[in-house]
UniProtKB/TrEMBL annotation:
InterPro entries: VIT, VWF_A, vWFA_dom_sf. Residues 289-468 form the VWFA domain. It comes from Maribacter caenipelagi. This is Ca-activated chloride channel family protein. It comes from the Bacteria. Residues 21-149 form the VIT domain.
Length: 715
């Protein structure tokens, strides 16, 4: 048997975290596996502040029977997906938009008739699923997905993010059995099962500076001062297991402000972007109480929790002496640092960091339960406003339930979010900030954790632009995508999407308050840009309108659904209720039999295998029976022992279980680097060295092992 690579950590054998058959599971791709996705290539063209993106997916069938491939993948939460093409045998098939139930009928009918077909669905604003049916043996089918989004700078820095993988979601608080979260994952560290690449052409219209990527190694070429071309360098390892994040500045940290307009056949669209030109720090900012709610579930185990500790230390050190704080750790349940909030001082900060260090990652991400607990926690001073700071990777499936809970408690606290990890659930992280009218921050490394902590300190020390209003004089604007303009962080611009009638003339006036000072800025519409190249403004307006109607609300009437469907059909946009379907009319599979194949997703970088399977532990529905115990021959701390036990069982459960069917006990010695250096077996009362077992076990090391130790395994 192939060593650990046959370990398929399959469903019934995953450290007591086993799932039922429809739940996510781990696998290791073998050479003969039929992996349908051959490649995923992303091409990005950024013109000014608008990114035009084409994602090209190539599906193949190396097997001997017709298949239907299913692949779940992420896109930007802001993406307006407006077009899809299918290419089969050099034939171009343009996908059509349908209401979702009708799309399913069209797709199913095509498959039954033996035709090749593809269907693209949206399950979340950042989670999509491609179904490609009747892929015949030897076939290669290409799907092109087109979307646009607007880039909004923060502190003068632009960022483009191309999400690469949907991290494993905890579904224990969700009553829906969503297929999109029941996909297989390759085990941590396993190489990509498909080719992945991304390239960006950046035409900023202004001099570009500081093009960097914290996520990937990149090569940058500058054809001229206002243009940059970015590709991935060859030294990237497994580039598809983390989000691609590109940052850049324009000369002098300028941003692209102003008015873009597009005159269509029936409608005219505009997007207005304006940066508040005030950055005043007030001396009379009132004291606040901060509750830090930190995710210590299975997906946060290891490196993400290390980043969280760095973040927490920097966040706490950035608070003022007049503030108070508390810490809540959550996974399957919550634990609280102090019965009541404590003062900001060195002793309390160190104690809080130790408290967090003792909270090892494990169990499911019970976010709703954690928030409910947080709202019930007592305050030290009822006259002091409370801010809740949620630190998580966001690997949950109850985003809208969380939005609703927070929206119903806005009078209790505002909620900030910090996303920790290489592929966080930005829908949750950004959405919580949206409904709470606050800010979200992302930290993929300890270095970034220190930087975003500074951003947070600046945010809470800087007055917002509040009570923002937009009005026009001599410019007939109407049907703004957002009903009201949210409060704006001083380093983030005001962005307005709308329609207009008549000539592009007159004025746009922005008013509001920054602290106690009145704010007013006037923009001449004639200074704006009307261009046929701004066609994407219509897609962006409709996507923003759909987001306001549907993205952040759980409960709404059928009229809202009907309005979203109408917007999707009119503007050719993928939504929660509309789907793209492409059908090739050639009949290739007359008997209609198909084998369903789920494309395995890469495990997110720095996320451990324990992230898959946590649901079963929380639901207490595991079918796994403990087949062996672990005795440590060394004196080690309780939390280290727990960490080692979990990591060992993740990596070795299948092999150990098999060998303990043959032998009475095993004794495994590790060196200080976590490598297996000796294995003994107990048979008929006699211990003997077994080099065969050692060869199988030594292929994987335990990162938690920091000194020589011996483990004894018993039935």
């Amino acid at each position: 048997m192939k060593p650990l690579y046959t370990l398929l950590l399959c469903i019934t054998c995953f450290i007591g975290f086993s799932q039922d058959g429809d739940s996510p599971y781990l696998l290791v791709a073998t050479e003969n596996a039929n992996i349908p996705l051959k490649s995923s290539i992303t091409e990005v063209n950024i013109a000014g502040t608008i990114a035009h993106v084409r994602v090209t997916q190539v599906y193949q069938n190396k097997g001997a029977e017709a298949i239907e491939a299913k692949y779940v993948f992420p896109l930007s939460t802001q993406a307006a997906v407006h077009k899809m093409h299918m290419i089969v045998d050099e034939r171009l098939v343009i996908a059509k938009i349908f209401e979702k139930q009708e799309a399913q009928k069209v797709y199913d009918s095509a498959l039954q008739e033996g035709k090749r077909a593809a269907k693209l669905d949206q399950h979340r604003p950042n989670v999509f699923q491609m179904n490609v049916g009747n892929i015949m043996p030897g076939d290669e089918i290409t799907l092109d997905i087109y979307y646009t989004e607007i880039l909004v700078p923060v502190n003068g820095e632009y960022q483009f993010v191309a999400p690469a993988v949907v991290g494993p979601r905890f579904t224990g608080e969700n009553t829906d059995n969503e297929e999109s979260f029941n996909m297989p994952y390759t085990a941590k560290g396993i190489a990509n099962t498909f080719n992945y690449d991304i390239s960006v052409r950046l035409n900023a219209g202004m001099i570009i500076q500081n093009v960097t990527s914290a996520s990937h190694h990149i090569a940058v070429d500058y054809p001229d001062a206002k243009t940059a071309e970015i590709i991935l360098s060859e030294e990237n390892k497994n580039p598809s297991n983390r989000d691609f994040i590109l940052n850049y500045n324009l000369r002098g940290n300028q941003i692209q402000t102003g008015l873009l307009m597009y005159e269509g056949e029936d409608e005219n669209f505009f997007t207005f972007q304006m940066e508040p030109n005030i950055n005043v720090v007030l001396d009379d900012i009132p004291a606040r109480e901060y509750l830090f709610i930190v995710d210590v579930s299975g997906s946060m185990n290891g490196y993400p929790l290390e980043v969280s500790r760095t973040l927490m230390r920097n966040l706490l050190c950035g608070l003022r002496m007049t503030d108070t704080f508390n810490v809540q750790l959550f996974a399957s349940s919550s634990t609280i640092f102090s019965p009541t909030p404590v003062e900001i001082n060195e002793q309390n900060i160190e104690a809080a960091i130790r408290f967090l260090s003792e909270g090892q990652g494990g169990g499911g991400t019970q976010l709703l339960s954690a928030l409910q607990t947080a709202y019930k926690l007592p305050r030290k001073d009822m006259s002091v406003a409370r801010s809740m700071v949620v630190i998580t990777d966001g690997y949950v499936s109850v985003e809208k339930e969380a939005f609703e809970l927070i929206a119903n408690n806005l009078d209790q606290a505002n909620v900030f979010t910090f996303g920790i990890g290489s592929s966080v659930n930005r829908y949750l992280i950004e959405g919580v900030a949206k409904v709470s009218n606050s800010e979200s921050f992302i930290a993929t490394t300890s270095e970034e954790a220190a930087e975003v902590a500074k951003d947070f300190a600046n945010y809470i020390a800087t007055p917002l632009l509040t009570r923002v209003k937009v009005e026009a004089r001599g410019f007939d604007m109407y049907d703004l995508a957002q009903k009201s303009i949210p409060d704006v962080f001083a380093a983030r611009p005001v962005v307005v999407h709308g329609k207009y009638r008549g000539k592009a003339e007159g004025k746009i006036i922005i008013t509001g308050y920054q602290g106690k000072k009145r704010f007013r800025e006037v923009y001449n519409v004639s200074d704006g840009s009307v261009s046929k190249t701004n066609r994407a403004l219509g897609y962006l307006w409709a996507r923003k309108k759909i987001a306001e109607l549907d993205d952040y609300k759980k409960l709404f009437n059928e009229d809202v659904k009907a309005e979203v469907v109408a917007l999707g059909l009119k503007y050719n946009l993928l939504t929660n209720y509309t789907s793209f379907v492409a059908v090739d009319e050639t009949i290739v599979n007359k008997d209609g039999t198909l084998k369903n194949v789920k494309q395995p997703l890469p495990m997110s970088e720095n996320v451990n295998n324990s992230a898959v399977g946590a649901e079963a532990e929380v639901k207490e529905s595991s079918k796994f029976k403990r087949t062996f115990t672990i005795d440590f021959d060394n004196e080690i701390e309780k939390n280290v022992k727990r960490q080692l036990t979990m990591e060992f069982k993740v990596m070795y459960s299948k092999l150990v279980t098999d060998y303990l069917k043959k032998y009475d006990s095993l004794r495994i010695k590790f060196n200080a680097e976590g490598k297996v250096v000796c294995v003994e077996k107990l048979e008929n009362g006699i211990w003997t060295i077994d080099e065969t077992i050692q060869l199988e076990l030594e292929k994987i090391s335990l990162k938690s092992v920091k000194k020589e130790m011996t483990l004894t395994l018993k039935k």
